[in-house]
């Protein structure tokens, strides 16, 4: 997802920069085609005034109480310590702001020595410019957590759940059925960037991404410096909900330059996030998680993670391709565990239902759904699937293949699955009871799904053990898809790297190393057991059969040569 967002943003940036259509600012075809330029020069000193007001329109320049910040001699579009200014303060919001009221920041710039006040006798329109920015934003209230303790008669439930809480839960359910409730949030950080843009634009061909931010002077047709309020790094969890209990809020202010390329990249990234959200490929809050990776992560570690992620995707694709190829060409189930294939399908189905119950994005759901279909297709390759129409409701009947039931493979598979199912059933029941007693769930259905999914994640490696047992009994590993398993093992090594890098629960971190143990046992079996030429491989052929066929094909050719020599 991260690489997709970056790819779309970079593509849009270059497309809008070099191949943008001629989109006029005005729909009037009589607009002349002339060049416009910046009214200010690079390095020109500017003075800044920062006002706070509950009114969207501001002209009370004489109000000293509204003036929060004033800076002088800021060099325009020059990088250096003198061009970046900061201020941190505490602000006491009014009663109106606490009760979903609005608050605006009015920022004005002017050439040093000039006033931004239009009522000043010495005011000159070509020397001052400004922009308004809302400090308070409005977002839908987060939905209440519907999870609850399913055991109402437990001690914790007796203490926590009361009649008033039950009434409150019913009221919350009614509110969620109606329109969402919007509340006000305070933005603790305000970053003011002056864009370093001295491009000479054609009046009727300004790039679409730049045009909404242009401040055109009406008499000359030229433009003022672009003031950009940078919210790219302002994450939602940093916002402060406003209510009557809030007495003061922090406010960190910063003013500085920004390059044209960086500014457009921020705009393209925001547009890319919006497109992903509109298509359903990104949930609300996932863009903040991506930004958090850049904010809190080590840049070298981030680069390594991106490279490793590309390798992980490549090995996933190769393992998927070879898995399909193996089962598509497989003609014999001798030495392969058919029950493991069936169990893998049910495990994949449980994970899919769990993701569906937790409102996961459709891209992840589609990937898991395709995995379920593939696992069911593999059942058809491992067993005979028939439709029984003898009853009122057609039923699916599964029947073992002759190559599986006609030898020792089925016997060993049944024996291994018998004992392993006892272990897995015991672990699943214990974990389900623990989760029921100490965890909170939305419903009994969610409890069953979450318990089964947790068992799949934590104890799923147990289902790989029957194949180890069959290999041990048959003293052979020639029937295994080693190419596909090699790619999966490489992915496991990459997962081991992520286990040390990424923060995760201890159980999930331990589960990453479970596949390493299983595959190392596979490698040991491959080293211990010699190559059996009588063993039928995944394509239904044995090495001795191939040698006999080759020798039989060589015999007529030798006789032909003897006849010719004679």
TrEMBL record:
One of its GO terms (cellular component) is membrane. It is a multi-pass membrane protein. It comes from the Eukaryota. Residues 546-566 are annotated as: Disordered. It holds the Pfam family CLPTM1. The keyword Transmembrane helix applies. InterPro entries: CLPTM1. The keyword Transmembrane helix applies. Its main location: membrane. Residues 556-566 have a biased composition (Basic and acidic residues). Keywords: Membrane, Transmembrane, Transmembrane helix. The chain crosses the membrane at residues 300-320, 341-356, 419-438, 444-465. It is found in: Membrane. Belongs to the CLPTM1 family. This is Cleft lip and palate transmembrane protein 1 homolog.
């Amino acid at each position: 997802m991260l690489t997709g967002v970056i790819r779309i943003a970079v593509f849009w940036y270059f497309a809008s920069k070099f191949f943008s259509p001629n989109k006029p600012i005005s729909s009037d075809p009589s607009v002349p085609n002339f060049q416009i330029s910046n009214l200010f020069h690079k390095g020109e000193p500017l003075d800044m005034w920062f006002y706070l007001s509950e009114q969207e329109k501001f002209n009370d320049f004489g109000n000293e109480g509204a003036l929060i910040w004033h800076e002088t001699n800021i060099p325009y579009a020059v990088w250096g310590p003198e061009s970046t200014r900061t201020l941190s303060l505490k602000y006491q919001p009014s009663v109106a702001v606490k009760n979903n009221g609005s608050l605006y920041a009015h920022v004005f710039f002017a050439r040093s020595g000039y006033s931004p006040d239009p009522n000043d006798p010495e005011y000159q329109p070509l020397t001052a410019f400004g922009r308004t920015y809302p400090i308070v934003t409005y977002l839908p209230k987060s939905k209440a957590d519907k999870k609850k303790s399913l055991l109402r008669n437990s001690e914790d439930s007796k203490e926590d759940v009361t009649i008033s809480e039950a009434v409150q839960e019913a009221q919350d359910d009614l509110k969620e059925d109606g329109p969402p409730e919007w509340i006000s949030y305070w933005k603790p950080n305000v970053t003011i960037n002056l864009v370093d843009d001295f491009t000479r634009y054609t009046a009727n061909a300004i790039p679409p991404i730049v045009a909404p931010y242009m401040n055109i002077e009406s008499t000359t047709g030229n433009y003022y410096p672009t003031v950009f309020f940078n919210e790219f790094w302002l994450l939602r969890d940093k916002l402060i909900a406003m209510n009557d209990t809030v007495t003061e809020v922090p406010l960190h202010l910063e003013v500085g330059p920004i390059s044209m390329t960086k500014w457009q990249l921020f705009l393209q990234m925001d547009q890319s996030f919006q497109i992903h959200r509109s298509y359903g490929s990104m949930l609300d809050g996932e863009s903040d998680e991506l930004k958090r990776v850049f904010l809190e992560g080590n840049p070298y570690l981030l680069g390594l993670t991106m490279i490793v992620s590309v390798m992980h995707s490549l090995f996933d694709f190769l393992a998927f391709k070879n898995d399909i190829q193996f089962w598509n060409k497989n003609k014999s189930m001798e030495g392969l565990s058919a029950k493991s294939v069936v169990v893998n399908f049910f495990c994949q189905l449980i994970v899919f239902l769990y993701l569906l119950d937790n409102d996961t994005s459709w891209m992840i759901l589609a990937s898991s759904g395709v995995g379920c279909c593939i696992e069911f297709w593999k059942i058809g390759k491992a067993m005979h699937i028939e439709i029984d129409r003898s009853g009122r409701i057609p039923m699916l009947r599964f029947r073992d293949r002759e190559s599986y039931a006609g030898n020792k493979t089925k016997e060993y598979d049944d024996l291994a699955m018998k004992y392993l199912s006892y272990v897995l059933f015991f672990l699943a029941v214990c974990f389900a009871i623990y989760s029921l007693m100490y965890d909170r769930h939305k419903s009994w259905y969610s409890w069953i799904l979450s318990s089964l999914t947790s068992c799949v994640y934590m104890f799923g490696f147990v289902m790989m053990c029957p194949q180890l047992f069959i290999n041990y009994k048959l003293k052979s590993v020639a029937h295994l898809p080693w190419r596909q398993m090699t790619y999966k093992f490489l992915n496991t090594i990459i997962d081991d790297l992520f286990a040390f890098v990424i923060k995760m629960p201890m159980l999930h971190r331990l589960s990453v190393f479970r596949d390493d143990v299983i595959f190392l046992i596979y490698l040991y079996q491959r080293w211990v057991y010699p190559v059996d030429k009588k063993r039928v491989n995944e394509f239904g052929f044995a090495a001795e059969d191939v040698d006999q066929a080759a020798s039989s094909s060589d015999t007529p050719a030798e006789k032909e040569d003897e006849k010719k020599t004679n």
